[in-house]
Amino acid sequence: MYTFSNRLRLFAIISFALGAIMVGFSLASVPSSVEDMKAMEAAHGHGHDGDHADAGHDDAKTAHHDDHKADAADHHGDEKAHDDAHASTDHHADASHGANAGHDDAAHQDEHKLQQLQNKPWAAIYIAAFFFMMISLGVLAFYAIQRAAQAGWSPVLFRVMEGITAYIIPGTISIILLLFISGVLHWNHLFHWMDPELIREGSPTYDKLTVGKQAWLNVPWFLIRAVIYSSIWIAYRQISRRLSIRQDNATDNSNFKKNFRLAAMFLVLFLISESLMSWDWIMSFDHHWFSTLFGWYVFASMVVSGVTVIALVTIYLKSRGFLEYVNDSHLHDLAKFMFGFSIFWAYLWFSQFMLIWYSNIPEEVTYFITRIEDYNLPFFGMLALNLIFPLLILMNSDYKRLNWIIVIAGIVILFGHYIDIFNMVMPATVGPHWSIGIAEIGAILLFLGIFIFVVFTALTKAPLLPKRNPFIEESKQFHY
Amino acid sequence: MSNKVIQAMYIDDDVLMAAVKKVRQENHHIEEVFTPFPVHGLDKAMGLEPTRLAITAFMYGCVGLAVAIVMMNYIMITDWPQNIGGKPSFSYLENMPAFVPIMFELTVFFAAHLMVITFYLRSRLWPFKEAENPDPRTTDDHFLMEVSVHGNEDALKALLLETGATEIKVTEKH
């Protein structure tokens, strides 16, 4: 039996408390109005001119909602396009009209920027919440694959995986809470499509494209779906865990067989729910954009982070002397999965990027233009973290057996996939005003604290070696 | 000193493994072992060096990548930078996504083929090469260990028989 070490528990609690304070601080220091925002900027010493240019700049790139509105053939869009052309080309335009339009535009930009700044701490919380939920979901999928494939090497790691998947409950609950806050309480503007003004006929921001997607993207159905996905995952996790523990003291293998069938069923449901989840929880931030392999892309990110966390937790527990039968061959296998799934992730990332870059269709390519222009370093930097570094360091068979190499590679991979989620969420919610500061680090610490606490508490609940698993003997003897 | 070798025949791979370990313990030099299929762990038991083929494959892959980059940089960017469907051909980096499939394939192509050729060269395999197995049964269901004779031939024979050899033949080395 594993006992939760006091030092680790203390670390988790401190991390949680510190994260909560930092997040609270960043939420409190958000500007509440345009005047507030201007005052804060003046205090920070931004020149008014530069600031203005910046606002115009970001509006042109990130507010593709507006572009689409102009494209849509409604009266408002036509009028607006006409007005713009008129104002910029006709030198005889009357001065007061031009000035007035300019004033409206600036006010609109300020409003836009204010919303983005207000979104920033929420987006940071959302990213961290999703990141840790995604890790445990990735582990759950990996665990189900191991069960369905009747893998002979992994049963000694099942309890570690079950421990990590315990986080799926607080993880999905925190996501649903955040969705509730955005959709029902409207405390933030994370999901732009949730703005009721976009679908109200006659409203100045009426958006035909959002109306077209209303059948899928409406708040009640959105929340119901979130609950459905979460219940599928939680149900599988709980039932599988119960069967796994029951198998320890069973007299036959019926629990094991049930778990096998359950895993196969779950994998079917998982692939569907995961794909839909990625459209809902990630892709709908850019609700004018769509990509068909997005679900796979998010899956690759979650499974590689999941395997990495399994490896890190295993190394930690092994170093504390709790996993007697885990040897460096098990570690080697995990490292191979880290290596392989890193490449798989890069393959999907590149497939998505290259297809869109190559065809360069305006409605698709805005997604990457905002990222390349405003998020250049994170966008391309994550390639180095998620592909090139693991590729080079985990290629060597001997390195895959060294704890410290796996720990370093694991930390780099986890950071890289955090940045990956960051790149998916931030551009649509805060535009060019991103940074990795108090809000982001605080949110990571907050959820890291919960994650460690939940995972290691779950690990104390059952013996770390499954007893009557039919493959346990093979797994104990496993060597490569 | 003559070039005599003793060829001991075995009919089971487990017996063979035990024999290899025993013979090595007694400090006899095993010239060669012929088996009809790969015997897991035999190379370790014989004390063979691990292969370096993977390292050569990595280097060949790097060569392939370099070839792809240099080739396409010369053709598409330096030599005749045409505007083909609006793709930016001002620098290699700007148009790189379009080159990645070729870079990837050439890396794999070089790594795979050159490694295979290296394997053939190092293990001296080519068409019309004369087969080297001392007994045709070693391609079907028998295992053969060749031990060089230095000193007491009878003691070595006794040792091999003791390890479970079914046949023993003393020959001059070819």
From TrEMBL, chain A:
Designated name of the protein: Quinol:cytochrome C oxidoreductase
Biased composition (Basic and acidic residues): 42-95, 102-113
Residues in the signal sequence: none
Region (Disordered), start-end ranges: 42-113
TM helices/strands, residue ranges: 123-145, 166-187, 215-236, 262-282, 294-317, 337-357, 377-395, 402-422, 434-459
Lineage: Bacteria, Pseudomonadati, Bacteroidota, Flavobacteriia, Flavobacteriales
Keywords: Membrane, Transmembrane, Transmembrane helix
Organism: Kordia aestuariivivens
From TrEMBL, chain B:
Domain of life: Bacteria
Alphabetical list of Pfam families matching this protein: ActD
Residues spanning the membrane: 53-76, 96-121
InterPro entries: ActD
Key words, A-Z: Membrane, Transmembrane, Transmembrane helix
Keyword field contains Membrane: yes
Protein's UniProt name: DUF3341 domain-containing protein
Species per Swiss-Prot/TrEMBL record: Kordia aestuariivivens
